Amino acid sequence: MPAAARDEVVTISFAGFNRPWAAWIGDRLERRGLRVVYQRWDPAPEEPLDVLLTDLAMAPGRVLLVCSDWYFQMGPRTVGEWNQALRTVLRSHPGRFHAVTVAANPLPAATAALAPVELIGHGEPEAERRLLASLSLTHVEPQPAGPRSPRFPRSVPDVWGGIRRRNIRFTGRERFLHDAYQFFGQAAPGAGVLTLHGMPGVGKTQLAAEYVYRFGSEYDVVWWVDAGSVPTYRQQVARLAGALGLSTGQGYGERLRAVMESLRKGDPYDRWLIILDGADEPEGLRNLLPSGPGHVLITSRNTEWSHYNSELMEVPVYDRVESVSFIRRRAPRLTDHDADLLADALGDLPLILDQTAAWLSDSEMSVPEYIELLREGIDDDVLRVSDDSPVAFPTAWSLLINNLREKLPESVALLRLCTCFAPGHIPVGLLQGLRRQDVPEQVRGLLTDRVLWNRALAQLRQYSVVSLEAPDRDDGARESVYLHRMVHGIVHLNMSDADHEAFCQVARKALAAADPRRPDESSSWAQYATITPHLVQSDALRSTAPEVQELVLNCLRYLYRSGEYTEGIQLAERTLKAWRDLLGPEHERIWDLNHHYTNLLRGAGDYARTETLNRRIVERLRTQRGNEDLDHLRAAGGLAADLRGLGRYREALDVSVWVMEAYRRVLGEDEFLTVRALHNVAISQRLLGRYDDALTTHRAATEAYRRILDGQDLNVLFSDTLTAEVQRFLGRYDEAESLQRDNLRQFVRARVEEDNPWRLSAELNLALVRYRNGRIREAGQEIASVVERAERKLGERHPDTSRFLNSLAVYTREHGDIDEARNLSERVVHAYETQLGPGHPYSAGTRSNLAIVLRNLGERRQAYDMAEEALAAMTSAVGELHPWTLGCAINASALRNFIGEYEQAVELSEATVTRATEVLGRTHPMALSARVAYADDLRGMRKWTHAAKEEEAAVTDLAETLGRSHPHTLSARNQNRPYWDFEPQIT
Question: Which of 151, 201, 556, 598 is the most buried (most CB within 10 A)?
Fold first, then answer.
């Protein structure tokens, strides 16, 4: 390297807005051996400009100015001030200053003495050549670029999606940007989560967007997500799969899982930044938060993010210097004194400063006159958006609305229409699909004249009332805008009830017209995810229009089918309250709504509550309409499902059989409701351990479904899954694997989401049958995958998650870390005991599993006590002849043997062999396991001959039933004591 380049210093002076240029320039200079000092230009308004430039001249080495529109507006300073200061300082310090320009507008005339080199408008190689030539460095050979070298500012990261447009008037916040950058730079992998929190209107979203534009060039992936609702969040994160080039199915659940795994591994990119905008409900998103080597930036009003592995950074209102600078930039005609008065009157809140300054910039009104209007408009009756909003906010907005109305009344109409959607991201494109005769006169021109529509949108954007969404959004809407919740609230409050109802009627018609009317089909779920957040704000819950009521029910069905139980329950409860007031408690729609509500509660595992509700509904409908009324039969079927969830299987079977027979009388054999009732009979039979009967009934239900439904309908697929499961319970492993493998292929072809609970059950069954067939590693990976997706989609406390986690705990006990197996098993036991009570069969069965874990840890007495208690609880819950009780007995006899109580072990295992043979047959895998266990207990009693005889017979039957090389056969031949693994079943 030439000596001229060694140890030379260059100080780069830049506006914060242009940091990507400074970083790129500095990297090019450092790679040529220069030492670079970065000096962000942020002059105090009260300091004379020539003094500031003189101080800059004292910096080490040559000073390189990155000239831009922002650089010369900081302060702000006039062009005349800049010309005078530059002439003075450049004469006093010849040769000290150099310049490049990235400005879009003409520079102050005095900069001509610096001969600034233009970098914009050129590709990276030419821009680099120009930079080096300006500093006489073209002869210096560069060092190779490092893996973290800054990207050329005119290029974007490899993956860039959903990013909000940059606010060219962004002002201040330098400390927050710096602190955020420092936090991410120092964060360990997995800990780079930062939440910007603060009151509405302080500019959290703008600050996040500015961070993206300043530091985005340091990432390979930058992805913006609207996190206001969980379904929308899932959809938008799933879209990242395509941008990352991940091979996955079409369902958003599959894509979501692939994205999360890619981010976690940092493959194909480890430098990623995900922005979660408006994430005000951390509880719903905590299992969906990306983790890995990248960074997550959250905007939220909720400080509870601190409980979910996130650092908090509070964003306050502007300080006064920032307010004045921002107002001067937004409204150049105002003086510093005017800006100070306005900032004081409006409480330094960025949102209202932006909108008010935009208006005053086009108005002849003076600031004192405007402030007087504010004061005149304030009295005790003025409504506020929130307690922490400035008192002048509503009045300021009234003045702005009046100005918009004078210029273009249709812009106000459009704004009012937006208040009939939920604040935030609004799918206004849905309004364009309405017919002319379906809308009132006051908005007919707006919705039918595209030119007028575009003018109205443009005016709202001009005054920073709304912002257009990024063009690559894909949420079912053709056009979308962003309306801040504070603006949304004050516009709503300024509307009369009559106007609000008229506008909301239009919104409801638009939402109903957008209804795909196919809530069971996953291909429609993206559209429902767009529609559902706006039902409440549009007053859809209080509508008497049949198509709107049908839309509400369809949205509830979508939330149930897609596994969004929490949001579904909240919506159902709000709808129940509204419809009871609107329609009366006995209206037919109420029974439809109750059906969806109890489905959602049952899906979330709240069986006791649904049983109470359904029993009351059943009694009322039976009294009012008779036994064979269809609503009554539907409610009775729901009651049977509740009883199954509560572990009252005999009652459930009795009710299920009665409902099925009633449907046959009323509707006939091949009606959907009749077939579904038959399907439910099969579920009750299997929960009672009557596996042969259940297999026959499941097959009959599946064939009947196929006669009346498409082969890829979810009901057909789920019925096939349960049939394969019963085959596994009967020990017909090869048959079960063949059917389940084909069934899962059908789930994929039907594009059922990868995290749909029914598909997860299908995948788990395939993994478990492979496990039984000795494909241990493959099964373990599949079980872990199912658990991961369930925890992310359903949450850790959901019954299905506990069911899947139980299988992972069993697998980990035998093929993983025993301490981890204990942790998993204890989590499962705690979940079931908390949700269902200690006497529930699932609580007893999972305690039996935990006892074996404790046995393997050497905790003899605790394991023995737990196994005995589990056996007693299971016997009490389902009877001594139920297969689950027999399994608990196999485990309890093992623990008796383990602590040396051989006689009691033989007594129990002998009785278990007798009962298992009677209930399941001599060659059922559980009966064979009981026989092998019995032989082991006989050896403990030193009855060698008897033990050998029993063992030989059992091994022979195992070989004939499962095959000589099956893992169970080989294990028995090697005298390995078998245990029974309890498995909670679908209810």
Answer: 556
Token pair, residue 612, equals: 């109470």
387 CB neighbour count, 10 Å cutoff: 6
Residue 875: HSE in the Cβ half-sphere, 13 Å Cα cutoff = 13
Q: What is the DSSP letter of 942?
A: T
H or E stretch covering 361: helix 350-362
How far apart are the C-alpha atoms of 105 and 122, rounded to whole Å? 16
Residue 585 CA to residue 581 CA, distance in Å, equals: 8
φ/ψ of 301, rounded to 5, equals: -95, 0
Beta-carbon contacts of 863 under 8 Å, excluding residues fewer than 6 positions away, are 851, 852, 854, 855, 857, 895, 898
**Is the link from the previous residue into 409 a cis peptide, with omega within 30 of 0?**
no
Distance of CA 868 to the CA centre of its chain: 43
**C-beta separation of 601 from 576 below 8 A:** no
Residue pair 470/162 in contact by the 8 Å Cβ criterion: yes
Tens of pLDDT, residue by residue over 587-646, are 889 989 998 999 999 888 888 899 999 999 999 889 989 999 999 999 999 999 999 999
Q: Where are the alpha helices (DSSP H) in 363-449?
A: 367-377, 393-407, 409-418, 441-448
Lay out the sheet containing 9-14: strands in order across: 35-40, 9-14, 62-67, 97-101, 117-118
Question: Residue 29 in 3-state DSSP?
Answer: helix
Residue 454 corresponds to which amino acid?
N
CA distance 874 to 884: 7
What six digits make up the tokens of 821? 């197996």
Instruction: Decide: helix, strand or coil at residue 399.
Output: helix
Of the candidates 352, 1, 16, 28, the residue with the CA atom closest to the CA atom of residue 202? 352
Is the pTM value of this prediction over 0.70? no
Question: What is the rounded (10 degree) CA torsion for 684, 688, 692, 695?
Answer: 30
C-beta separation of 380 from 393 below 8 A = no
Q: Residue 199 has which token pair?
A: 């009151």
In this structure, the number of other CB atoms found within 10 A of the CB of residue 815 comes to: 13
